[in-house]
Amino acid sequence: MKKLNGSLETKVRRNISGRALPATALVLSVCASAYAVGLRDPNQDPEGIARGNAFAATADNPAAIYYNPAGITQLEGNNVRVGVYFISPDTKYTSPSGSRAQTDTSFQAVPQLYYVYAPKDFPLAFGLGVYSPYGLSLDYGKKTSFTSLAENGQVLFLCIDPVVAWRINSTLSIAIGPTINYSQANFDRGIYGVPGGEFKFDGEGASVGFNAGIRWQPLEQLAFGVNYHSDTTINYHGTSKTQPSPPLPGETASTASGHFPRFVAGGVSYRPTRNWNLEVDVDWTDWDTLNDIKFRNTAFGNVPFVLDYRSSFMYEFGVTRQLGKGYFASVGYIYSENSSPSAHFNPIVPDSDLQLGSVGFGRRGRHWDWAAAYHFGYGNRNVSNNVSPTPETADGHYHTFNNAFDLAFTYKF
């Protein structure tokens, strides 16, 4: 290793040996980036989004594969639905000393694809969904007061979900299918005490789980639905790299193991007339199972990191009005609880209580359907007493205002 002058040499040696505190900070930023409530993406279709994702009991288009696969028994024939979700994540940070930072607000695109085959007068329906229930990215850049905690993080999580639904009788349907998951993770952060120092991790992994649902419609005006997505663990295999190298150790083959929790949503749909559909849902994510992340074989050794997340709810409400000639309009609202305690909060996933509003419209035709939706997410959070192994902490005020759009088309034949 090349010599460094003065205190910098001492700091680098402490980073490399004995799993010093800056090494723990390195793991903190990577793990918090990859696994927090901010990476749960429940927005999988414009009709669902426009209704505040209160769609588990309605579930009457091919996106029911995600929202409640039992709902695909309401369809007939072949249905192919293609959509794309655009989101602009915008979080502004103000430190206790008054310094500021802001995330990159560029729009990110998340595709969605659903196919349903429901033979006429047959009790079974078959579906295949390709969607992203976790993911997106956040980038603060390199000029913040917490570079050793977070700079940018990106997670791609792709779920391939074949399902089979059974219409037991005219009022009750159930469904189940495996989920085949593939994920990539990329993270960058600074290294405290090393000017220009940087840590990067790139990895990928796969896992399996399952998705199930039940839908009961005892009356034409009233329906109930429940959807369950199982938990799954992804073991990421890739490389970690420190720069400058030398004097830092350079590139090593590294792994990270992270748990993506189960979630369940249940709702009630009420249709007072044929032109109105009101639904209320509750969506719960079991974040209590995410206690720590295991990050192995980095330049600083194996360092576990405690997250101590807590389970949280989303409360969802939506209304749809039929306008005639196949046209419809919807509005929705969500209140989403945060899951990250202040002690283990990390800016790369600025988790907070969120208020979300949405609006959308569309048309259903004989062979073609289309829908478009817009929604925003608004939240404020003050973080204090944040535990950090370096003098840089996540304490401060976080203001979030996200904008998102979704557009989808269905071809029926």
Give an overview in words.
This protein is mainly beta. It has one domain: Porin (Beta Barrel). Helix content is 8%, strand content 55%. It has 4 helices and 21 strands. The chain has helices at 6-16, 21-34, 46-50, 64-67, and strands spanning 77-88, 91-94, 100-102, 108-118, 124-131, 135-139, 152-167, 172-190, 198-219, 222-229, 232-243, 251-260, 263-270, 276-285, 292-298, 301-306, 312-324, 327-336, 354-364, 368-383, 396-412. A hairpin with a 7-residue loop joins strand 11 (232-243) and strand 12 (251-260). It is elongated. The relative contact order is 0.20.
Question: What is this entry, summarized?
Answer:
This protein is mainly beta. It has helices at residues 6-16, 21-34, 46-50, 64-67, and strands at 77-88, 91-94, 100-102, 108-118, 124-131, 135-139, 152-167, 172-190, 198-219, 222-229, 232-243, 251-260, 263-270, 276-285, 292-298, 301-306, 312-324, 327-336, 354-364, 368-383, 396-412. Helix content is 8%, strand content 55%.
